[in-house]
Design a protein that fits this description.
This protein is an alpha+beta fold and 151 residues long. The chain has one domain: Alpha-D-Glucose-1,6-Bisphosphate, Chain A, domain 4 (2-Layer Sandwich), CATH 3.30.530. 23% of the residues lie in helices and 48% in strands. The chain has helices spanning 15-22, 28-31, 121-143, and strands spanning 5-11, 35-43, 49-58, 61-73, 76-84, 87-99, 104-115. A seven-stranded antiparallel sheet has the order 1-7-6-5-4-3-2. The chain is globular. The termini are far apart. Residues 147-151 have low confidence and may be disordered.
Length: 151
């Protein structure tokens, strides 16, 4: 299996409150920084996103890709790449665990990215770490009631 990068953060909210923000793809441009557009292309029978198109602008890296989402339970979601111009693979997940009597949530974000252009593994891991840290900081700000502007 490919190497991955993982990081966690504690958010002052219940897992359900955190997952509500994670699953609200239409609002990603408001708090994720790099996501400029998000469009849900398909939903499952419970109304959860199954495929989402994302338009990214991270400075030197601009890409449009489609991700397939799997909702494992109320506290976990994972995704994998369906199509992209720049990426060969993009696999990630959010896992939520209640802490402090359920009033806080530990959010663990795991990510594996592989680009179509040759790149050293250490540089890929560093890029994954930056993506994860920015996403977790933006998520925390958004859930805890801030503007969520991570960009």
């Amino acid at each position: 299996m490919a190497e991955h990068t993982r990081s966690s953060i504690t958010i002052e909210a219940t897992p359900a409150e955190v997952m509500a923000v994670i699953s609200d793809f239409d609002r990603y441009p408001e708090w994720t920084g790099e996501v400029k557009e998000a469009e849900v292309l398909a939903r499952d029978e419970r109304g959860r996103a199954e495929q989402v198109r994302l338009l990214l602008d991270a400075g030197a890296i601009k890409d449009e890709h489609t991700l397939a989402y799997q909702w494992e339970d109320a506290d976990a979601v994972s995704w994998s790449l369906v199509r992209s111009r720049m990426l060969r693979s993009l696999d990630g997940s959010y896992r939520l665990a209640p802490v402090a009597g359920g009033k806080h949530t530990e959010v663990t974000y795991q990510l594996t990215v592989d680009v179509k252009i040759p790149m050293l593994g250490s540089i890929k891991r560093k890029a994954e770490k930056v993506i994860i840290d920015r996403a977790l900081a933006g998520l925390k700000t958004r859930v805890e009631g801030g503007t969520g502007d991570a960009g």
